Structure prediction request, 428 residues.
Amino acid sequence: MLTDNRTFMALLLAGAAAFSLPGSAGAQTVVTASEAKGKVHILPATLETTQWGWFNNAQAPVLKVDSGDTIVMETMMHSHNQVIPGATIEQIKKLRTDFPGRGPHTLTGPIYINGAEPGDVLKVRLNKIVPRAYATNFNVPGMFGQFPKDFSEGQVKYFYLDLDKMQTEFAPGIIIPLRPFPGTIGVARAEPGRYSTVPPGRFGGNLDIREMVAGTTLYLPVFVKGALLWTGDSHAGQGNGEINLTAIETAFKEQNMTIEVLKKQDLSWPRVETPTHWLTIGYDQDLNKAYDLLQQETVKFLTEGGLSAADAQRRMLHTWDCRISEVVDVLKGTFCFNAKRGAPAGSNLPTAETPQALVTYAKSADLNAAMDTASMAMIKMLQEKKGLTRLDAYALASMAMDCRLGRPSGGDKEVACLVPKNLWVATK
Prediction:
């Protein structure tokens, strides 16, 4: 059971007092790591090195590093580690209603990168991610998510994360693979003041792009001197859509990343590089506008590779493979895969069940409506075909569903939501 907030803070502060923290007198954060090219810094997650729910570009940095350095850091669970096994949904809801305006996320940072200036790009390579052994998924009753009016009842579930098998058991016979990634990673906005961690933006932040696993690189435009980098909202996995607001929410024992400053680069929105693809993104409060921005950013990216605008438009349509990252963070998110070599032709969306996946499909002139229809249909399908309760169907879809965007055609917009059938395994 949770302590009250003042008692919790006092206990955590008492525990932190024995440590020499980054930024404190005499603190030493650099450790020996012979194979690293730059310095390696240790950044623990404590009350002094984390923020609950806000970005603020006037905040003093908790660590300063050079371009090329590596940071080995920890993150916390939501609300300064108060959303942990034992917390009830009523307590979790109270953490939102008692602190209006702030996000639920606990972010480690900010980290000041020497030499970073507005107009530069911050290159963040994710080297290694190690979650805690547990996670949660919850639906705050009647307040958030894609369907708050339809799910006025709340639920919280906790899960054991098997890091040897890299999987978690949602329920007997339902196994979800783990793909840990930071739900939130971003730099300071240009605008002064305090901003909720919930909406993402050009600065990155709460992007919720599940492809940002270890081995990938995030590129972020820089808006203030030193960039000021935060990360948290740690996920062990997530569905494309994240419809009940939460993914497989955890904290990281280790998020190992190397930071580099790229001077004077033209980058209007973040991009993600995987070993095989570049990811372009589009975010807006209106999913239709996010979809339009996604196309613009993808064409822009392809022209940077030497194609004319007309050829880039044709290439985008030919190789179209795009997803909905989330629809619950004020700004709704989309992203496209752009293959580095030998981009295959894109495939049409499935409109009915396949041997590999349960599928729901919808089309509409309004992409928001198409997404609502397709994802609600999947919730109902999981109840009818798999016998899940309403709230469990909502949760499983949020944790494992893959909502895909149809190729732009000038007519109705299409969404297909897929849930892999291999999540269901034979029980002994």
About this structure: DSSP finds seven helices and 25 strands in the chain. The CA atoms of residues 350 and 416 lie 7 Å apart. The helical segments are 5-16, 78-81, 89-97, 287-304, 309-318, 367-386, 390-400. The two ends are 34 Å apart (CA to CA).
